[in-house]
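Reopening: L-ectoine synthase still failing for me.
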Amino acid sequence: MIVRSLEEITGTEREVRGPTWISRRLLLAKDKIGFSLNDTVVHAGTEIKMWYANHVEAVYVLEGQGELVDDETGEKYRLEPGVMYLVDAHQRHTLRAHTRFRAVCVFDPPLTGREVHDENGAFPLLTEEDR
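Support: Ran it again with your exact input. Result attached.
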């Protein structure tokens, strides 16, 4: 059984910061469960262009208001608490946080905890052996 709190991982290597976001990595590849689980905050008024070329991501919105844009089709989706979206076909997409935006994110394959978005908005495919 694994039990963790945000409080205990804040300020540790499990808290990863980007220029517009903070991701608290609750479950990682080294936990050996087949997926990773993040509690992520995106700063109000910011935008992140992403392309998960190596991962599938499910996102469940906990708080805040935002917009998801499918950069391939131009479709826009309103994001608010209770909404879930899944990026399953490696779509290029943009997340716009109108307010402080907090979500739970699940990744497959699991993240190692060291990933940050590259110049294409993708996370590299890392394994525990890459340490």
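The CA atoms of residues 58 and 86 lie 4 Å apart. If you still see a failure, please send the error message rather than a screenshot.
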